[in-house]
Amino acid sequence: MNAEEVVMASGNASWMLMSASLVLLMTPALALFYGGMTGRRSALNMMMMSFGTLGVVSVVYILWGWSMSYGAQSLGGIVANPFEFFGLRNSIVDDAGNYIAGASGYANIIDVAFQLTFAVISTALISGALAGRVKFGTWLVFSGLWATLVYFPLAHMVWGGGLLSHSETGIAARMFGVTDGEATIAPVDFAGGTVVHISAGTAALVLALLIGRRRDFLTAAQRPHNLPFVMLGAALLWFGWFGFNGGSAFAADGAAGLAWLNTTAATAAAMLGWLLTERLRDGNPTSLGAASGVVAGLVTITPAAGVLTPATSLILGAVGGVLACLGVGLKYRFGYDDSLDVVGVHLVAGLWGTVGLAFVATDTGVFTGGGVDGLKLLVVQIVIALVAMIFAGVVTLILGLLLRSTMGWRIDDDAESTGIDYHQHRESAYDDLVGSEPRPMAVGSATERPERPYPGTSTATAPTAPTSQE
């Protein structure tokens, strides 16, 4: 490697480490976003679901996730051998003790770190559909299983040379042929429309239907308890998303800059599209709508960030914001309890971003000079979106049924009515939910420890159920 190549590799490595850190920040940001959207008595549990996912998925990614996603020993184009790089063996240094270089020239371990953060946030997104009613332990087990059996295979299929990639053995190649060893019409998923958002949104829908509604869904007001938390979480998600999309260029170059600007353009337009929809439909634009519109725009541009111009990103984002806003209302029409709008935001906007890019992709879209090839690209994008939905939906259903029959998903009605935070974690988010008397400290053995009073009471007796979510 000459001096210029060394400098370039060093700059790219710096950008990718920064991008990995930005994407890691997105999971705590999601905890704030979701935690603010839920009720006061379930805020901690909602945030703990994100943090718990960060723990579980990080561990399984190091053990077998990288190998299943990017191993060379592909199993039918669906997933790679989990034992090839188990525990990251043969992935960090070579026999001489030198760091193994990845495909982009910098150390391979940097790519491992970057991809780990994607697996974490993708899994954590699902939790928003289950607010206030599921066992924390069951969620942790599900997060590890879902990452293993849904996310890792999809990452391999799309980014690891599998069935949904541009490889000569992929679906697109079988549909429209091969040119120079790759699919003539290559599917596009720049940073995770199928792998992240369609898969998580589909899983959220399946679990919402399987696990059922909260006890007071559609019978009592379901208000966010802390809108400043929601807006702060959305802001940090936007900030972290520059690593999500910009880092997916895998270099500190013009492609990363384009992804950065396209991300901002689509997100701003989606927020305005959501607020306009609210204004026309409901009479008032809301802060919750602004925050949700931001996330919808980020989701929309994720698969398309590298193949649009800033101007066409505005179009894609604005439509994504409108569709996601309307999509949130589907849960009221069809009666499924998608608590924090994962289906409306991530599935609807993820589908639109994945399919819609085929209309406006630079020089290749239906309306931007692609001609017949643009129509072929549209077909390919629809197919990969449907395959991702079906795969994620079927596997999630199997996992959900298995856990329902073994560990069980739901907390009991009394625990749900009095608040999942205390039931699952023996904590409350706010002092005014705890009685004025100090909680007794643990003394002696476990059998000698006095019972702590339920938040808001002076005895161990739980209060009566609130009439609405506080």
CATH topology-level fold name = Ammonium transporter fold
**Structural class assignment:** mainly alpha
The order of strands across the largest sheet is 1-2
Distance between the termini: 61 Å
**Tally of separate helices:** 15
Q: Major sheet, described briefly?
A: 2 strands, antiparallel
Number of strands: 4
Q: How is this structure best described in words?
A:
This protein has 470 residues and is mostly helical. The chain has a single domain, classed as Ammonium transporter fold (Orthogonal Bundle), CATH 1.10.3430.10. 61% of the residues lie in helices and 2% in strands. The strands form two sheets. Strands 1-2 form a two-stranded antiparallel sheet. Strands 3-4 form a two-stranded antiparallel sheet. α2 (43-70) packs parallel to α4 (136-159) and α4 runs antiparallel to α13. The radius of gyration is 23 Å and the shape is globular. The chain starts with a helix and ends in a 45-residue tail after the last helix.
Any chance you could write out the topology, listing elements then pairs?
Layout: H1 3-37, H2 43-70, E1 74-75, E2 79-80, H3 108-125, H4 136-159, H5 171-176, E3 178-179, E4 182-183, H6 193-211, H7 227-246, H8 254-282, H9 287-301, H10 310-328, H11 330-334, H12 342-360, H13 371-406, H14 413-418, H15 420-425
Antiparallel strand pairs: 1-2, 3-4
Q: Which features characterize this protein?
A:
single chain; 470 residues; mainly alpha; Ammonium transporter fold; two-stranded antiparallel sheet; 61% helix
